[in-house]
Amino acid sequence: MTPFIKHSKLMLAVAVATAAFTGCKPKKAETVISGDAAQKVYVAPGKLDEVYLFASGGFSGQVAAYGIPSGRLLKVIPVFSQNPENGWGYTEETKAMLNTSHGFIPWDDAHHPQLSKTDGMDDGRWLFINGNNTPRIARINLATFKTEEILEVPNSGGNHSSPYCTENTEYVVAGTRFSVPIGNNTDVPITSYKENFRGALSFINVDQKEGNMNIAFQLLVPGVDYDLARSGKGVSHGWMFFSCYNSEQAHTLLEVNASQRDKDFIMAVNWKKAEEYVKQGKGKKMPATYYHNKYDEKTHSAKSTVEKEVLTLDTRELKDIVYFIPCPKSPHGADVSPDGENIVASGKLAAVIPVFSFKKLTDAIAKKTFDGEFDNVSVVKYEAALAGEVQKPGLGPLHTEFDDKGYAYTSMFVSSEIVKWKVDTREVVDRVPTYYSIGHLCVVGGDNKKPYGKYVIALNKITKDRYLPTGPELTQSAQLFDISGEKMNLLLDFPTIGEPHYAQACPAEVIMKNQKKIFELSKNEHPYAAKNEQETKVVRNGKRVDVWMTAIRSHLAPDNIEGIKQGDEVYFHVTNLEQDWDVPHGFAIKGAENTELLIMPGETQTIKWTPKSTGVFPFYCTDFCSALHQEMQGYARVSAANSTVALKYGVGDTAPKDQVAQK
Ligand code: K7E
Ligand code: CUA
């Protein structure tokens, strides 16, 4: 969403429009903070927050977990970006997670966290998030807060309308933002957009036990931009809704060229129908190379598999899978009400918010109340699918979520506010300023069949004058509002990591009940695990030296190693022998080129070290684990490539003793 604020032409149009809505201008913050706000966000020391908030890190490529109402940062979960804090993407075990058909890609732009669902409710099993730039979907296990799987999405460019779960997480759905040339010949002129460019919507099957993802099928759809999506639920279970812009099919200067038509589209996808066609064998296998990376909790290691084909269904041939509904002016969000009946479409440049009725939509499809076709897809008549419009909502509607009392909350980017309206009458009942330029918003359980409500969190783009300055870039920020009463009340500003495009929140209990406290050492199947100190060893194989090391309060074993030579590749495989909650150990050695390790109880992790000079190199534990943490240290001696120093190692009595004798 970032780009459009920069473009002067648009800003001019927007400024003119803003003048007509002076009522939306943010008031001074002081005037809107109510007296008991502090009390409502105060979580006393030792007390726990009520809600987990999972926010995307945007260009940081990570996810962060916060406690609500305090806004306290609980954890940064590394996903698409390497993270030296805990070795993610640097250790031998985790490197494979970042493999793609474009090579090792250690970053991405992550936008939309999505909690897994059971019967339309957040179930606390997994959190999915999209990598936009090099199209990927990641799955985080919420028992361990670790990324367990990353699946690349082929035929996609800018994986933005992604990832959205169906009612029971039958699928995680990932739509492409950019349409791109697909098929055997992709080396085509950019000007041939209309002939050669197509969109792909991927339906990724999720194994209900382990969570493993596989692309069940891809729908090949008209070449436009697919921006956001939501799955149907309740009455609309079996359908997905995508917002589409650039129905002009422009390939340059979209700012102007993709804002020509009065209306773009919402695409309604009947995925149950698509499933039927797959069963009937109507899918076509298409060659496509993409990586599938999985982290195994038993071996504590990731493996990459290269997939070679994908099953596709072409909507030009199978015409009753998808339908277009006209939607005013560059739609961004497409959101579905808790009962599944209302589809709210937010056009960034539109003056109203259209709300479509699922019942009217399906009636119109049955009666073929169409307004012709767009690229072989039937276009349902706007009025035929429309439940009604929210009038004068504000400027720049982007995203909508729902509470437990029949209200919808829409973010207004241009007028910087949240607008509350009644779902059944579409009447605006309240508005509150945000500071500033709100993008997404998040109601607790706001996309569930039964939202939890109580809070809405604004995810803002600009924070000028809200925080102490930190150079040219100010902190990114979220704002917490109380929505339990008639009026929305601002409670708190809190900084976030990266750009918090979107977030999902659920009651703490949903996540807490599944928490894993340790990895069982007896179940550790890492090939280099040392499950006790007797199993520690150092083994040379040509120029490769493997160190089976253990960590326990408060020593590493072995802690003296000799016989390493210049030019060797040394692998430290460190197993944390602890079986207590929250007792990680760290490992670092002087001159390590990549990272440290942070090893959870019962886990084994490995760093590769290639010493560049001779000498004695200290290593130590990097996590303050006990009163004698600072004693948790050792030495590795590195000799010249042609030296005759024998390989020796140990701890205490077994440590190498004749250190002086050899040269
Ligand atoms: Cu920032 Cu969902 Cu990428 Cu809207 S997106 S704001
Ligand atoms: Cu182990 Cu410090």
Automatic annotation (TrEMBL):
Residues 1-19 form the signal peptide. Its main location: other. Pfam families: nos_propeller. It comes from the Bacteria. InterPro entries: Copper_CuA, Cupredoxin, N2O_reductase_N, Nitrous_oxide_Rdtase_Sec-dep, Nos_propeller, NosZ/Cyto_c_oxidase_sub2, WD40/YVTN_repeat-like_dom_sf. The keyword Zinc-finger does not apply. Its EC number is 1.7.2.4. It is found in: Cell envelope. It is an enzyme of class 1 (oxidoreductase). GO terms for cellular component: cell envelope. Keywords: Copper, Metal-binding, Oxidoreductase, Signal. The keyword Glycosyltransferase does not apply. One of its GO terms (molecular function) is nitrous-oxide reductase activity. SUPFAM superfamilies: Cupredoxins, Nitrous oxide reductase, N-terminal domain. This is Sec-dependent nitrous-oxide reductase. The gene is nosZ.
